[in-house]
Amino acid sequence: MHPDQLASLALTLLTTVALLVVISVGLAVIFGMMRIINLAHGEFLMLGAFATLSGVRAGLSLWLAMPVAALVVGAFGLVVERLLIRRLYGRLADTMLATWGLSLILVQAVVLLYGPATNGIPTPLSSFELGRYSVSEYSLVLIGAGLLLPTLVWLVLTRTRYGVMARAATQLPEMAAAVGVNTSRMNMWSFAFGSALAGAGGALLAPLAGVVPSMGQAYIARAFMTVIVGGPQVITGTVAASGVLGGIEHAVSYLTTPFLGQGALLFAAVVLLRVLPRGLTGRRR
User: What DSSP designation does 119 have?
Assistant: First the structure.
């Protein structure tokens, strides 16, 4: 294989892995840490994309609209936690039903506001030559985000007072409450944090995919598979699962078709969970 082609394939592989990280890191906090099955996660991604679209249409630059979109979705997640989720902790079936209903409501609300047509945001930056191949510079932005977001989550959860209390509130709520931690408030902020990360993922997807109310359905299954295969370690597990599943999807897509690549990702996730029921990081715990 020619070195130019090898470098291009490696960059495409990193982009695929980064995409899985970006769409999954918010769910890793909400589902992996808080144990809330948020079936509206795809719609949170969609809200991030539409918030970015609205910001660009309002005159903001794309690079400013993206963090604003993350904050908007984080604020929306805070409201959802206060009005809906806070009454459903420990009730998995009820949480699934409530968030599924929320996802339907969000899709219809966005259809009423923006219409069912696909909207687009021009891909920023340009491309550069890698030997005989042309590579989009935005792929480097996506790879950078795939490194930055997990690092941010790790720093917040391990190096801040909030992170210590948030982990205590989800892992040992009774003991945390006994030493004065307001577990209800910590859960609220954790859900908002995970929602903001989902919004950031949707904002990063906006220039790559058509911004349409149903776009979340294309990503939610891969996000859940990545987090579940990752296992109990929220950050290392999600990154490791993204690398394994992304590598398999990329290899099969390159040799066959993208459709078979996604099928191979699902098959690999099933096999890994059969061999490692607690995920890739389950043994470490």
Answer: B
Tell me how far apart the alpha carbons of residues 167 and 139 are, in angstroms, rounded to a whole number: 33
How far is residue 249's CA from residue 259's CA, in Å, rounded to a whole number?
Answer: 9
Check residue 1 and give its pLDDT: 59
In the numeric block, the tokens 């990360």 are attached to 197
Asked whether 151 and 18 are in contact (CB, 8 A), the reply is: no
Q: pLDDT per residue over 61-80, tens digit each?
A: 999 999 999 999 999 999 99
Give me the percent of the chain exceeding a pLDDT of 90: 70
Cα 123 from Cα 114, distance rounded (Å): 20
Query: Among residues 37, 43, 35, 54, which one has the least CA distance to residue 76?
Result: 43
* Residue-wise pLDDT tens digits, 203-216: 999 999 889 999 99
Answer for the pair 166, 186: CB distance below 8 angstroms, yes or no.
Answer: yes
How much is the pTM?
0.93
Closest of 187, 179, 233, 216 to residue 102, by C-alpha: 216
User: Is 55 within 8 Å of 68 (Cβ atoms)?
Assistant: yes
Q: How do the domains of the chain map onto residue ranges?
A: 21-216
Q: How many CA atoms lie within 13 A of 253 on its CB side?
A: 16
Of 36, 123, 50, 131, give the one whose Cα is nearest residue 87: 36
DSSP E strand stretches across 11-147: 127-130, 133-136
What digits encode the pLDDT tens for the residues 2-17?
Answer: 677 788 888 999 999 9
Contacts of 222 (CB under 8 A, 6+ apart): 20, 23, 24, 245, 262, 265
